[in-house]
Structure formats: C-alpha cells, structure tokens
TrEMBL record:
Organism: Marinococcus luteus
SUPFAM superfamilies in the record: C-terminal domain of transcriptional repressors, Class II aaRS and biotin synthetases, Winged helix' DNA-binding domain
EC number: 6.3.4.15
Entries under InterPro entries matching the protein: aa-tRNA-synth_II/BPL/LPL, ArsR-like_HTH, Bifunct_BirA, Biotin_CoA_COase_ligase, BPL_C, BPL_LPL_catalytic, HTH_11, Transcriptional_repressor_C
Gene Ontology terms describing biological process: protein lipoylation; regulation of DNA-templated transcription
Annotated protein name in UniProt: Bifunctional ligase/repressor BirA
UniProt keyword ATP-binding present: yes
GO CC terms in record: cytoplasm
PROSITE patterns in alphabetical order: BPL_LPL_CATALYTIC
Annotated DNA-binding residue span(s): 20-39
Positions annotated to bind biotin: Q115, R119, G120, R121, K186
Length: 327
C-alpha cells in the first residue's frame, strides 16, 4: 500500500475519525494492511488516535521536512515535483547543482534538516541549525536572457515574502534585493546562483533560508540583534513542511505569471513590499559605494539611486550597508 495515499486520506479527514473499512475500501487493501501501515506511521512520529469502532484520526504529524511530509501538503503542479531530502548536508545548493548537471528537472528541490556549510551571498555564511528552519534550494530553467537575472532575484523575494506573510501577524518587508525582514530583522535570505551562456540562462538555483522555530536566545552573537524567526512573532511553533508547500505554491504562481506576462506584476509587487525605495541608502557594489536615495526598480530589475548631486546611478547588484541596529 502506498503510505502517502493513506496519509493523504487521514489528512483530508482530520476533523473526524476514518474507519478501517472506509480506508480499506478507498485504498483497495485489506484492513490488516491498513493497521500495519498505521503502526508504521506511528513509529515515524505520526500521532494517530484510534477509537474502537470509529476508526483512525491523525492528530499530529512530525515536524520533519522529509519528502513524505512535504508531499502531504503540496498543491503545486511543477515546483516540488522531485524532492531530495537529507538530514545533514554541506549546502542544499550543492545537491541541486549536482542534479542540474545530471539533467535534473525544473521544479526539483533539495531540502535538509541541517546545513553545515550553509552559504549566504558574497561568500558569507548562513546559519542553518538542525530542526529550526527551512533550508531549501529550487532548480529553475527559465528561458530568458542572462541580463534578466535580477528579475528572478526580485521574483524570489516577492514569492517568499508573500508566503511567509500567511504565518505572521504583521507583514514582512523586503530589503533590496531580497532580504525578507520583520521589524528590520532578517527572517529569511535568498541566494540566487545562475549558470548561463551568452544568450540564455541555463539554470538558476534559488536557495532559500527561512528561520522558522528558533526561540528567543537561539540566535547568538551578531545574529542576536539581526535575525528573527516566524515563531518569535507568531508566538507558536510552526510546521515546516506546511510552510514549504506554501512557499512553493506562491513561487509557482509568481513564476507562471512572470513566464507568461513578463516582469510587470512582479516589479509592482516588489515595489509595494519593499522598505528600501524612498530611503537614503549606501550600496556597496563590486567597484564602489553608491550613496543616495533609492528611487525605483528598472524594467530589467536593477535599482536606481539618486545621488546627492542629483545624478542617477543604476545598480545591478550589491549590498545595502546596515544602519544602526534595530530597537
Ligand atoms: P546574505 O549574504 O544576504 O546573508 C548572510 C548574512 O546574514 C550573514 O553574514 C549573517 O550576518 C546573517 N545571517 C547568517 N545566518 C542567518 C540566519 N539564519 N538568519 C538571519 N541572518 C543570518 C542570504 O545571504 C542568503 C541565504 C541563503 C541560505 C540558503 S539555505 C538553502 C541554500 N543553501 C545554502 O547554502 N544557502 C541557501
């Protein structure tokens, strides 16, 4: 019997017990087989209530980010079509890169419970402690010219921020290009790595790191002042597989919009959700530091900054230097 189908059935009836007979009819297996699978699920951390005569009810599922748990919640068509789960990895970016080289399909994701060499942008590291967050990379193969890469970076921020808002009492804000913050603390970061030839992007690997269940005191050192988790604002622990499914859903819908209609709607949504535009910033690029007011996003996804002498400079990638630490 397919364990996943049993889980899906139990999920669909979480409000009432489902009888062994109903399950065996639905899945076309014997009641003994049902009972064996229920025992197997319990061993894997699923809490399943069994009331005599009334049947089985799924009370709680484990907070694992394994393939099965994610699939239970998935409602997407393409994203998440292939899921690679590992308990511990160096970086999920590496797992997806290997798959991409072997011809992995668009929509493939790698998820880990822990990363021991989690990477941020510009060679920085990303703290990816076990159990506490979502450490996930997504493989895309968009057929766009490489100069549009910044658009995908902004798209990722919009899709992720929108999904996370569903779990928070107040909305997140995007700091250019794609930090997701709440009260100016970093809730999630995105690392976009691209392989392209002269005319076309070959693969984009979007790495997303989301702080989910860290409690006060779990962020130490520089992160104590800079980082935040969903739990700290939502007040309770959150289900990581459910959030992963929400992220993929939101991402798929923005990605489809982008591939069909272009960057317009993404640009508008990003501009609406950022707290960067309109503020005075210092951006460090690979060549210089640009200082001025963040004006707008161009149609290619770059940032325009109006310098104090009135001239306008377009910045394609860089890092906004931090102001004083948040209250
Ligand atoms: P970033 O360069 O914008 O952010 C890195 C900086 O953020 C660090 O220098 C540190 O100050 C801070 N930081 C480190 N860890 C955390 C954390 N857990 N929460 C908040 N702030 C932190 C952002 O880079 C891109 C991060 C992508 C992470 C994903 S996880 C899945 C995939 N695999 C992988 O190795 N990276 C990506």
């Amino acid at each position: 019997m397919n364990k996943n189908r049993l889980l899906q059935l139990l999920m669909a009836h979480r409000d009432r017990p489902v009888s062994g007979q109903e399950i065996s009819d639905e899945l076309q297996v014997s009641r003994t087989a049902v009972w064996k699978q229920i025992e197997e699920l319990r061993k894997n951390g699923y809490e399943i209530e069994a009331a005599s005569r009334r049947g089985y009810r799924l009370v709680r599922f484990p907070d694992r980010v394994g393939t099965e748990e994610i699939m239970l919640h998935l409602t997407t068509e393409r994203l998440g079509c292939s899921i690679i789960y590992n308990d511990t990895v160096t970086s999920t970016q590496e797992i997806v890169r290997e798959q991409a080289e072997k011809g992995g399909v668009e929509g493939l994701i790698a998820v880990a419970n822990e990363q021991v060499e989690g990477r941020g942008r510009l060679g920085r590291s990303w703290q990816s402690s076990p159990e506490q967050g979502i450490w996930m990379s997504l493989l895309l193969r968009p057929q766009v010219p490489p100069r549009y890469a910044p658009q995908l970076t902004l798209l990722s921020a919009v899709a992720l921020a929108e999904a996370l808002d569903g779990y928070l009492p107040e909305p997140t804000a995007i700091k250019w290009p794609n930090d997701i913050r709440i009260h100016k603390r970093k809730l999630a970061g995105i690392l976009t790595e691209m392989q392209a030839d002269m005319d076309e992007v070959q693969t984009v690997i979007v790495g997303m790191g989301i702080n989910v269940n860290q409690a006060d005191g779990d962020f130490t050192g520089e992160l104590a002042e800079k980082a935040a988790s969903i739990r700290q604002y939502a007040g309770v622990r959150q289900s990581r597989p459910q959030i992963i499914a929400s992220i993929l859903k939101s991402y798929e819908s923005w990605y489809n919009e982008y591939l069909t209609n272009g960057f317009g709607a993404v640009k508008a949504a990003w501009s609406n959700k950022t707290d960067t535009l309109g503020s005075f910033i210092q951006v460090e690029t690979s060549r210089q530091t640009v200082e001025g007011t963040a004006l707008c996003i161009t149609d290619e996804g770059a940032l325009q900054v109006q310098k104090t002498d009135g001239s306008i400079q377009t910045v394609h990638s860089g890092e906004i230097l931090d102001g004083p630490p948040p209250e």
